[in-house]
Write a structure and sequence with these properties.
440 residues; 16% strand; five-stranded mixed sheet; two-stranded antiparallel sheet; alpha+beta
């Protein structure tokens, strides 16, 4: 079976991959595969991948294999070719799915949801950006509308900076789940949106697996901020000086330009409505997390024979309290003691050095997690729909990628089960009343 490309009314020049030969390149829709077995399914995907066909249909489900390289199939010419076409009229493509969802929402008045799921490193983040890029390209143009589109698109680099990290499989792996609801008027013009985040991997703030990095924003600040800015944040440019970044000497990533990414992140924050003082406050908290991670304790023996702790590197704490405008004693007490209620009395018990280090890491994780939640809330304030008329919705769910671990099978099961439970919850409570376009 061959997919034939009709000529475009706009005279778009020919582009590669116009037709497909099922005998040579594999079946474009698994429904047509014969016999339908697991081995045949995998063999078909391999054959298509070998011929640079990274997309395959399974009914109205689109399967994608990450090529880990740039393929020129996302150009404006491809957007024009897939615009207002039937789903199976052209070879499988994410633009076909996005177009089918958009037109069903606009023309049939059906709210839509595109679900993007898969293993970590499979390309979910890029897929969600391509969907938004396509919808922005084919929807109505105008100064006010273009501003809304820009804000929706610029939310991606901002969320990636604070929610993505380099892992063993992916240099830009999302470490959180994201559901973006884009709202349109009756003409299909975007009005705004709202973002919901799920399951931020805040444990990464304190410790990262070997060969992986912390969240991008830490390296972006150190690599991209100018000397005077770093000085105002009380930071040094060398990541080796920060315990949260040098767990496994994996702070260097040859494929990532942290300086350019920092400029893009700042530009994105300004584009979505952050004031300059708010940007500075956010970066101050990021710097504060790094400095908290450098606070160290040494064990001491108390008079009653119990183990206590003594703060080392007090200058880090002083810098931190000055940045956060907090008295030294308040933060030091919070890091070295815990309060226990005994009846009507409240007793302060001193931490051991091990407990103090755990409390320090917990504070780093909690502070970063609350910062991320605040960023989402602030972003929603700026992109939320202002009017209260009748609206249509197109949702894009980029759920947390499940992991496959070679060593710990129990860990694999735990993460995969958590993924399935969360996805089931979202399907039942978020998109139960919408038309499912695809699972990706």
């Amino acid at each position: 079976m061959t997919f034939l490309q009709r000529s475009s009314a706009k005279g778009v020049p020919p582009v590669p991959f116009e037709t497909e030969d099922n005998n040579i390149e594999g079946v474009a829709d698994i429904v047509l595969l014969e016999p339908v077995t697991e081995d045949a399914f995998v063999a078909n995907l391999k054959k298509r991948y070998k011929h640079r066909r990274i997309y395959t249909y399974l009914g109205n489900v689109l399967l994608s294999v990450n090529p880990y390289c740039d393929i020129p199939i996302y150009t404006p010419e491809y957007i024009d070719r897939y615009r207002s076409r039937n789903l199976y009229e052209l070879p499988p493509h994410i633009f076909a799915i996005a177009d089918d969802a958009y037109r069903s929402m606009r023309d049939r008045n059906l709210d839509q949801c595109i679900i993007i799921s898969g293993e970590s490193g499979s390309g979910k983040t890029e897929a969600s950006k391509l969907v938004m890029r396509y919808v922005a390209a084919v929807s109505v143009k105008g100064h006010r509308i273009d501003k809304i589109k820009s804000m929706l698109l610029q939310s991606n680099p901002l969320l990636e900076a604070f929610g993505n990290a380099k892992t063993m499989k992916n240099d830009n792996s999302s470490r959180f789940g994201k559901y973006m609801d884009i709202e349109f008027d009756f003409k299909g013009e975007p009005l705004g949106g709202i973002i919901t985040n799920y399951l931020l991997e805040k444990s990464r703030v304190a410790v990262q697996p070997p060969g992986e990095r912390n969240f991008h924003i830490f390296y972006q600040v150190l690599g991209g901020a100018d000397v005077s800015h770093l000085k105002s944040l009380r930071l040094s440019r060398n990541p080796e000086k920060y315990r949260l970044l040098n767990n496994h000497d994996s702070y260097i990533a040859d494929t990532i330009d942290d300086k350019a990414a920092f400029l893009a992140t700042k530009a994105a924050m300004e584009a979505v409505g952050f004031r300059p003082e708010e940007v500075q406050e956010v970066l101050t908290i990021v710097a504060g997390v790094l400095k908290i991670g450098n606070v160290e304790f040494q064990p001491v023996s108390n008079i009653d024979g119990s183990e206590g702790c003594l703060l080392i590197k007090e200058y880090e704490l002083r810098d931190l309290c000055d940045m956060f405008q907090s008295p030294d004693s308040v933060l030091q007490t919070a890091l070295t003691t815990r309060r226990v209620e005994a009846g009507s009395e409240v007793v302060a018990i001193e931490y051991s050095a091990t407990e103090a280090h755990s409390a320090r890491d917990a504070l780093c994780k909690a502070l970063y997690s609350r910062l991320f939640t605040w960023l989402i809330s602030k972003l929603n304030e700026n992109i939320r729909v202002e009017n209260h008329g009748k609206r249509k919705c197109l949702g894009v769910l980029d759920i947390y990628g499940f992991e496959v671990f070679e060593v710990s099978a129990s860990k694999s099961r735990f993460v995969s089960n958590a993924f399935v439970v969360r996805l089931s919850y979202i399907v039942q409570n978020v998109v139960s009343n919408r038309d499912f376009v695809t699972a990706f």
